[in-house]
Design a protein that fits this description.
The structure is a single chain. The chain has two domains: 90 residues, 2-Layer Sandwich (GMP Synthetase, Chain A, domain 3); 264 residues, Rossmann fold (3-Layer(aba) Sandwich). Helix content is 34%, strand content 21%. Helix 6 runs parallel beside helix 7 and helix 8 runs parallel beside helix 9. It contains twelve helices and 15 strands. Strand 2, helix 2 and strand 3 form a beta-alpha-beta unit. By secondary structure, the protein is of the alpha/beta class.
Length: 370
């Protein structure tokens, strides 16, 4: 690089605008800019260092680098040369995208990402639907959000997020890292996107499941996230234990329904999180009530279809067990449109944000972010 030439600072500034389409960062930041030469006639030659010589993006980089440099006053021509990173440069890029030695990037004092697991004592309480909508609500508020579907056997996040079958994470050539699928401005990882078909059964024993989830944390280029939400499988099994051990500083939201029969199992999920040194930040009561229009008085009435008081009971009981206040964060009403939006892969906080269920979840997102 002829760094002494007066055009070099302008060239580097212009190259800041050229983004790697897979990694979403400037090529200058990723170490992809090699030698820059300016000849006597002010024609510029720029070498772009690809992660692999077979990178299919050569034409795109040539086009975008040329477009970025051509408007600079004094440049008479642009020649883009394609090179390839050596092993040391590739390792430096890996380390930039992901901590070395495959460490989990969401642990330790330098971590700035809030990791929140969504837990429940049993299935059928709408935990995954809440996870999806909470992630989308946070993203809509301008936060960078990732979502892990840790329910390996009962994965439902891809369908709820409207991710088409066949869409899966991208392998970054030469770096042994995966790029998550982005849907509704949320970065998503699920085993459901990595199978030949959604209908294929996952028949893995616990240790294999634990390794797979570990890879979601260590081998995915998540980038800089504000929030990472994890949709846990119901109960207190291997996955909840393994993630609690991997992410000891993470937070947990416990999802329950109003009926008293659901409260005891919900309390177990929160107690397990506390045993693993995770912070239980609150309880969400889903399917809390149904609003119906009365044909007799033309007023809207609240109908407690599944009883009432379960969320408050879980919050109070967990507070006693963990010896700190565990608030009831939100009551999400029962609403047919909530289910319909999930079936269509269009989270209700985006498709109908003024509906009662969406408004409650948006309020929950604001409370958590605040």
């Amino acid at each position: 690089m002829t760094e002494t030439h007066p055009l070099i600072p302008q060239i580097l500034t212009a190259l800041d605008s050229v983004m790697d389409p897979e990694l979403g960062r400037p090529i200058t930041e990723l170490g992809m800019v090699g030698p820059i030469e300016v000849d006597a006639d002010s024609a510029v030659s720029v070498t772009i260092l690809l992660t692999t010589p077979a990178c299919p993006l050569k034409a795109r980089f040539t086009r975008e680098v040329t477009a970025a440099l051509t408007p600079i006053d004094g440049i008479t021509g642009v020649n883009v040369i394609m090179g390839a990173m050596d092993d040391e440069q590739r390792q430096a890029l890996r380390d930039k995208l992901h901590p070395p030695q495959r460490e989990i990037p969401f642990v330790g004092p330098e971590n700035t990402t809030r990791v929140i697991s969504i837990a429940s004592g049993k299935g059928g309480v709408g935990k995954s639907s809440l996870s999806v909508n909470l992630a989308c609500a946070l993203a809509k508020q301008g936060y960078a959000v990732g979502l892990i579907d840790a329910d390996i056997y009962g994965h439902s996040i891809p369908d709820l997020m409207g991710i088409p079958e066949g869409d899966g994470p991208t392998v970054i050539a030469g770096l042994d890292l995966l790029l998550p699928v982005e849907a509704h401005q949320v970065k998503v990882m699920s085993i459901g996107m990595m199978k030949p078909s959604r209908g294929q059964v996952v028949a893995w024993r616990g240790p294999v499941v634990d390794r797979a989830i570990g890879q979601f944390l260590t081998e995915v280029a998540w980038g800089d996230l504000d929030f990472l939400l994890i949709d846990l499988p119901p109960g207190t099994g291997d996955t909840a234990i393994g993630l609690g051990q991997k992410l000891p500083d993470s937070e947990v939201i416990v999802v329950t329904t109003p009926q008293l029969a659901a409260t005891e199992v919900a309390e177990r999920a929160g107690t397990m999180a506390a045993m693993l040194a995770q912070q239980v930040i609150g309880v969400v009561e889903n399917m809390s009530y149904l609003e119906t229009s009365c044909p007799h008085c033309d007023q809207t009435h609240r109908v407690d279809v599944f009883g009432q008081g379960g969320g408050n009971l879980v919050a109070a009981s967990l507070g006693e067990r963990v010896d700190y206040e565990v608030p009831l964060l939100a009551e999400i009403p029962l609403e047919p449109g909530f289910r319909e939006a999930g079936d269509q892969g269009q989270p209700i906080v985006l498709s109908n944000p003024t509906s009662p269920a969406a408004a409650a979840i948006i309020g929950l997102a604001e409370r958590i972010a605040g």
